Amino acid sequence: MDGTRRLMTYRLKLPVRTVCCVGHDAFYEPAGVDTFVATPATAGPWDAGSQHAGPPSALFARAFERHEPVAGQQLARVAVDILRPVPVAPLTLRVRIVRPGRRITLVEGVAEADGQEVLHARGWRIAQAPEQPPVAAPLDEVLPDLPAEDTAGFWPGAHTAGYVEAMEWRFVSGAFGRPGPARVWMRPRLPLVAGEETSPFCRTMMIADSGNGVSAHLDPARWLFVNVDLTVVLHRQPRGEWVLLDAETTIGPAGAALAASRLSDRDGVIGQGMQTLVVARR
To answer: Which of 62, 172, 196, 209 is surrounded by the most beta carbons within 10 Å?
Structure first.
């Protein structure tokens, strides 16, 4: 990234702690204008020392929404490339405008930890149309009801005292440890940043990164199937707290896989999520 435009920098100090997230107020605590301190809620299930990619991806969405905003524009797509595991360590986000405009704006960011770049991201902001354009007829589909109870569970040996416990999971079909596609209503139990209301796009980013986990085909005790990216495209902003993750993973013969997720709120489909996976024996 060059220095032709002003950079907005966020420094996230992420303490290494393996404790339950219950009792924390948010995924991140603000500590000044551009500094945030992560709580243990950010830790992922694979390794207590690495973040789940959902929270830092949501922080990119937050930055893209706020960086040099243009009246009437809304975030429509965020694509995050995961260069390496994001450590539970200080993290810096640098954000700039690549393509300014009144109708469309392209924003990009880089996250660094321990002197290395760990995440790259780009986001498109699209101007809201002054007149409602014609849309295709809605699909003749009835969305599943919200199950009454949290039905998550998780595989033995997973680190659950982090992101897993910070999210609410209500499976309609499938389950952790049950191979194949899955549909699960999800919502964060905590705000992304303490003292702030989490935006609909940020909330969706946190949820969409779980597509590969809920639709796993392989035994996680024997196999890794981690994503190297996350792309979320929304054709409308979500309404309400709950997002339905309708996910399916397709595994190829040579170590690559694709997790594709249709995203819905209580009123209907809102967009798509996609993850490229690397598959390898532990």
So the answer is: 209
Q: Are strands 8-13 and 91-99 parallel, antiparallel or unpaired?
A: antiparallel
CA distance 256 to 21: 33
3-17, 125-139, 177-191, 219-233: least confidently modelled range: 3-17
Measured at the alpha carbon of residue 280, what is the angle toward residues 275 and 281, in degrees to the nearest 5? 140
- Which helix (H) or strand (E) segment holds residue 41: the answer is none
- Residue 78, both tokens: 């965020």
Number of domains in the chain: 1
The model carries a pTM of 0.88
Residue 247: give its domain's CATH number: 2.40.160.210
Element (H, E) at 48: none
Cβ contacts of residue 38 below 8 Å, gap of 6+? 12, 13, 14, 15, 27, 28, 29, 51, 55, 88
273's enclosing H/E stretch is strand 268-281
Report H helices in the chain: 54-66, 163-166, 200-208, 211-214
Of 35 and 125, more confident: 125
Q: Give the domain range for residue 175.
A: 8-128+152-281
Contact 250, 281 (CB under 8 A): no
Tens digits of residue pLDDT in 169-204: 999 999 887 889 999 999 999 999 999 999 999 999
